[in-house]
Amino acid sequence: MLLSCLIGVLYDKISEYISILGGFCSVIIAFLIPGLIYIKNNDYPITHYKNILSIILISILSIVGFTSGVISIIKIFYPDPPLQ
User: What gap in Å lies between CA 51 and CA 36, rounded to an integer?
Assistant: First the structure.
């Protein structure tokens, strides 16, 4: 815990890098892999309405998460301009 606090105090922009990890890794771990496992392991054909709804939901949540990760990368390379 001390090491985590020390990193956060010494490097104030760590939250931007953590948001990149949240945008990419958490989407894969929390939505994409479990959804694909559900679709693969049920006995319905891929065209069944439950699978189609699952695919649509997984796609929407993945797009939102990946967009968040890309926006975080853009904010790192292009910070907000100073106010005039």
Answer: 10
Q: Any idea how long the chain is?
A: 84
**Residues in contact with 17: Cβ distance below 8 Å, sequence separation at least 6, in sequence order:** 76
Instruction: Give per-residue pLDDT as tens, 2-61.
Output: 888 888 888 877 888 888 888 888 899 998 999 999 999 999 999 999 999 999 999 999
Residue 58 has a pLDDT of 94
Residue 78, φ and ψ in degrees, nearest 5 = -130, 80
Distance CA 24, CA 54 (A): 19
Helix (H, G, I), strand (E, B) or coil at 55: helix
Domains of the chain, residue spans:
14-77
